Prior knowledge:
Layout: E1 2-13, H1 17-28, E2 33-36, H2 69-81, H3 87-99, E3 104-107, E4 110-118, E5 121-129, E6 134-145, H4 151-155, E7 160-162, E8 165-167, E9 183-184, E10 187-191, H5 207-214, E11 234-235, H6 245-265, E12 274-279, E13 284-285, E14 290-291, H7 299-303, E15 311-315, E16 319-321, E17 336-338, E18 343-346, E19 358-360, H8 369-375, H9 378-398, H10 407-419, E20 440-443, E21 454-459, E22 464-470, E23 475-482, E24 486-495, E25 505-514, E26 517-524, E27 532-538, E28 544-549, E29 557-559, E30 568-569, E31 571-573, E32 599-600, E33 609-627, H11 643-646, E34 660-668, E35 674-680, E36 687-708, E37 715-722
Parallel strand pairs: 1-2, 1-6, 2-3, 6-19
Antiparallel strand pairs: 4-5, 5-6, 7-8, 7-14, 9-11, 9-13, 10-12, 15-18, 16-17, 20-33, 21-28, 22-27, 22-29, 23-26, 23-28, 23-31, 24-25, 24-27, 28-30, 32-37, 33-36, 33-37, 34-35, 34-36
Helix pairs in contact: 1-9, 2-3, 9-10
Amino acid sequence: MEMQEIRKQLAVIGAGPAGVCAALAAARLGIETVLLGNRPVLGGNSSSEIRVWTRGATGAGSLFAEEMGVWGRLKLENFYRNPDGNPLFWSETLLDAVMSQRNLTFFLNTEVFELAMNGGRIGYIEGVQQGAERRLRVCADCFIDATGDGTLGAEAGIPFYVGDRRVEPTDGPQLPGAQLQGSSILYYTRREDHPVRFIPPNYAYDMEKIEQMLGRGGRIVNEQLSGSDCWWFEYGGVRNTIGDAQDIALELKRLVLGVWNYIKNSGKFDADCYTLDWLGSLPGKRESRRMETEYRLRGEDLLGARRFPDGAFYGGWYMDYHPAGGMHDAHEENCVQIPVNVYQVPLRTLYNRQVPNLIFAGRNIGTERDAFVSTRIMNTCALSGQAAGTLAAVCVRLGKSPAELDCAEVSGVRETLLREDMFIPGVRSEDGANLAGRAVAAASSHHSGACGPRAGSYPLGEGGFVTFPAVEGGRVAFTVTCDRPVELRARAHRSMLPSRLRPGEAAGDAVWKLEKGEHRLDYSVPPGMGGAFCTLVFENAPGAELGLARPGRTGFVCGRASRSEYCEPMLAYEGDAGLYVPAQAINGYARPWGGPNQWCAAPGDESPWLELRWETPVELSEVRLYLDPELSMELPSSHTRQWDESHHFTAREEMPAQLVRDLRIQVRGEDGALETVFTQKDNCQRLLVAQLPRPVRACALRVCADAAWGDRSPAVYEVRAYGPAEA
């Protein structure tokens, strides 16, 4: 068999969300990178092979928390090309990104089977590319284990955890009896224009067994299901999820085909014309190894939203506990979900100094199990990949291991991540190379914060919430209509980033006794709440309805805790509260944290522009714009319309209305004349990097937002500007 030797600065093993993001992040920073995946497609559990839809912090209730960065760029590109969420096209979006990326080589269908150590470091790895009769030997300065199973780490001799048990590599791949989360196989159905017969294979579970399993925990099936509705077809948590992978997959197929036989042939469903359109052959795995790292993230870190000096990315999915027995478990609950606010994850969860040139990414990073049940979610894994790829790039350039980085170098990693659109909760960019920090911002106009025209009402019979940016000493007014006398009660909460499930620190109660009719209610922001978000949580108030406004502002949100469907309340400050002034676009925050942190043009501004002005001329080479793609609405990799309602999921129907679509960048020279140096049409991205054709000397930089995707005023979270040496 042919042996091909590959020498790169970085090798990434595993091509799921974590591995893809790690490889892209490092390659974009100029590191020669090779990516190896053991499947024919990219994307891991989200791939067209498995088709689990990606979710993250926004799906678990946090507002303005949708994961961006490298992963967000892929999701936005996918939505632009693939608004219906076809999983086949999602895999192609990933492949296109990897194939077109400079400094990045990749090999699919490649299983790594051997690792060689040299002086305590990984010297090389070897693998076989299936179907090519080719062996690969990969030598690199640094390796990233994004395998999900921690394969490289275990082979390199690093201890790991299975469930709550610590395992030495010499003990075997897993300890018997560990209680883990299982795997799931998905399927899709399709309705034909004629009856379709289904004869189950002999190995499928019989109807009696299926009825017993469906009787536990309110598990419901029908003829219109997509596999996304049946994520709870779960098994394997009491098995060795690595060594018994084949047996687990076959047991899941027994289950799925048994359920389909029950739907088709029990006579309880209108299923004559339905057929299986697709059945996964490979399950999506939730849990296996977690590596021992310099710090292991704990459940209390999540619940307390702890800050870390090396916090580098974030999570926000529930602490999500699945029964180990899956469908065979007698528990009444399919899973138990404990909400959390967005939390930081430190770089120290990504490495163990025992093997200095190995970094982890994905679900195998260092966590205790009560943190793992949140960090395992794919969007969080993807962010860990970007952090790992960035950390690897810095280490390769400096010739250091992660554990050898000093405080300033760790801060440099974080600044690089922020520059590449990573959100680190509570961390403001202090990039000294960013020339925007020396500028004064001006604009053609700015949004006053006033609400738009009335656009309906929201019933408060089952309660609800209103979130808005808190301005110290400010007074807001909102509208409530009652069809009977109502005592409206609300509790105020303070938070830096609001959540519909964990609204924050309680900050006082309010009561309004209302007669039948329409009322304009005044509310004063409680003392000490300024510089944060205020969330009013209303008790059940049958007969009362909150007035809604036509959407047009970031930061003003209302809805119910139980659903991710959001509206804009007809609520506004008295006068201009300064929420969307130009200076907000250069304050170091690229998304809401304690406030909108956004410039937004005034409604009706036909030629909106944002300008940075310098007292003395600067030389510009690169401009970065961080735009508004509606960060409170989820961007899953794929979905089917059937499960939108059952999952309380609001699918995007079109491009975000306030996202800048067409723009020009102009510079004002020392002669006062404006020159257009960059033009972009049909932009679909949040982070737009404009490389100027040549360095230019400028007294001012102007961003002309010529058009947005919809009828909302265009908005910009942050503008960064760099000279030739920094770009």
